[in-house]
């Protein structure tokens, strides 16, 4: 299959899967088989695309033109291939997990859930493969709209309120700020929005004040990146079922946000221009502030999903930090954090869901000694916590190392203590959970009986074990991952540019 056909297949498959789920919705076993088989086929297609990219090519697909300078086109470079691999690969695990969770918790509207999930993956892959800001923005909004019903899934007052905050915040930032930044870029670049190696705006002689304002519009307009103060949609979205939380925090939504921040930094501004933009320092300060303050808030939360939500806010800011460091090591650290955080945080949320399905417990203070009954779940939680903290041999350690190296290269020494303090706070709010569950203090009462006689459904136990193993496996694949991503950060060797994905 030719590379352009592979892109067509990757984009069309999630929609075909969604249609198949709708047709077979009345027969749950067939519906879920369609989801799992379809997700597996999609992952194979994305692997084929990534193999082409690893060979030094950047497959592209030109669809058409909405208006002059507004091309609907796709082009897969290493960073986009990485995001596509993360989204499609973890969809398989999340779908398997969802079968156990949704059935075990007797959730309603399961067919709608799986349909919206498939459309959300369609949006995430469109973001990953977009050749320009226009195409990316379209799929960015598809992702927002398709996940709104997932956040509101339970249909009660709390779910509706959380979903409203989710939708209004993400649409408000994207239309009010992100779209304005895109339009401004279109004007500054001479009716062009393509992602260009070295930076679309790098040779446009833009005034520092203008470049700073544009960068700040992008940083806060990409609301899915959850920089403070536009982070509050994320904790409010915790009313959704746990598989949705995993989607929001690990697979698609927030990763689409920080991925977009990286793309803008690398392909719109470029290393040389971004390192001289005064507003970059302001965004760096905001990212550092978000890392520390969100971690401190996480420590105060007794609700497990709320603690993990604020942890996500802090961990996402690592990627923004890497983007703003504007060195190859910083960009590599931010990109590796996308994959590392996806595996680690997805594990933590799936563990939280397994605990809830089995016991009905949501508060950390009620989980002491629970590891006696759910050892595999809490061992997976422990491994993922070590990865989030950055302790070898977990993949999260490589991301932090590269971010620190990037900070040294860029002469930004204050980033290093921020990352060190962040790791200490990670230890404080994550490690006590599995340790007190697996090794409770003497005299700790026996945990309450399971609300389900058989405990957590098997898929909700196996899935986090798989992603916990991935945290270790990716540690040893850090070298190949860095080699795969390296071409995305290198300066272009030619000044010739092909626009719009057209030959």
Automatic annotation (TrEMBL):
GO cellular component terms attached to this protein's record: plasma membrane
Localization in the cell: Cell membrane; Membrane
Domain of life of the organism encoding this protein: Bacteria
Membrane topology annotation: Multi-pass membrane protein
Major location (coarse): membrane
Keywords (A to Z) from UniProt: Cell membrane, Membrane, Transmembrane, Transmembrane helix
Domain NADH:quinone oxidoreductase/Mrp antiporter transmembrane positions: 130-424
Family: Belongs to the CPA3 antiporters (TC 2.A.63) subunit D family.
Protein's UniProt name: Cation:proton antiporter
Native source species: Hyphomonas beringensis
């Amino acid at each position: 299959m030719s590379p352009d056909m592979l892109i067509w297949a990757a984009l069309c498959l999630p929609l075909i899967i969604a249609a198949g789920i709708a047709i077979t919705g009345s027969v749950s076993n067939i519906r879920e088989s369609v989801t799992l088989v379809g997700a597996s086929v999609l992952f194979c297609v994305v692997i084929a695309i990534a193999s082409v990219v690893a060979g030094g090519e950047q497959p592209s697909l030109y669809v058409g033109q909405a208006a002059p300078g507004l091309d609907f086109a796709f082009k897969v470079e290493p960073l986009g291939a990485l995001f596509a691999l993360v989204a499609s690969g973890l969809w398989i695990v999340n779908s398997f997990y969802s079968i156990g969770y949704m059935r075990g918790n007797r959730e309603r509207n399961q067919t709608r859930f799986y349909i919206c999930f498939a459309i959300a993956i369609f949006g995430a892959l469109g973001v990953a493969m977009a050749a320009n800001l226009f195409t990316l923005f379209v799929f960015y909004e598809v992702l927002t709209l398709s996940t709104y019903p997932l956040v509101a899934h339970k249909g009660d007052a709390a779910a509706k309120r959380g979903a409203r905050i989710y939708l209004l915040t993400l649409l408000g930032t994207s239309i009010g700020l992100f779209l304005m930044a895109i339009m401004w870029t279109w004007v500054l670049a001479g009716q062009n929005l393509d992602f260009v190696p070295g930076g679309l705006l790098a040779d446009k002689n833009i005034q520092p004040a203008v470049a700073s304002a544009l960068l700040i519009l992008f940083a806060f307009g990409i609301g899915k990146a959850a920089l403070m103060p536009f982070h509050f949609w994320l904790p409010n979205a915790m009313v959704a079922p746990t598989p949705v939380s995993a989607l929001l925090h690990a697979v698609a939504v927030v990763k689409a946000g920080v991925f977009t921040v990286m793309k803008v930094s690398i392909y719109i501004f470029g290393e040389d221009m971004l390192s001289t933009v005064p507003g970059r320092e302001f965004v760096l300060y905001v990212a550092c502030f978000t890392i520390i303050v969100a971690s401190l808030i996480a420590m105060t939360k007794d609700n497990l999903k709320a603690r993990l939500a604020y942890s996500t806010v802090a961990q996402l800011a690592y990627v923004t930090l890497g983007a703003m460091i504007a060195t190859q090591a910083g960009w590599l650290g931010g990109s590796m954090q996308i994959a590392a955080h996806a595996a680690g945080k997805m594990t933590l949320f799936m563990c939280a869901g397994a605990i809830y399905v089995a016991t009905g417990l949501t508060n950390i203070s009620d989980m002491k000694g629970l590891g006696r009954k759910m050892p595999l779940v809490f061992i997976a939680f422990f491994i993922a916590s070590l990865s989030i903290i950055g302790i070898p041999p977990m993949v999260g350690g490589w991301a932090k190392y590269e971010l620190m190296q990037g900070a040294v290269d860029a002469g930004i020494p204050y980033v290093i203590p921020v990352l060190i303090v962040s790791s200490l706070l990670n230890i404080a709010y994550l490690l006590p959970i599995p340790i007190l569950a697996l090794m409770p203090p003497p005299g700790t009462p026996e945990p309450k009986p399971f609300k389900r006689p058989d405990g957590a459904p098997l898929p909700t136990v196996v899935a986090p074990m798989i992603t916990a193993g991935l945290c270790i496996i990716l540690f040893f694949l850090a070298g190949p991952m860095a080699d795969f991503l390296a071409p995305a950060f290198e300066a272009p060797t030619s000044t010739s540019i092909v626009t719009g994905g057209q030959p």
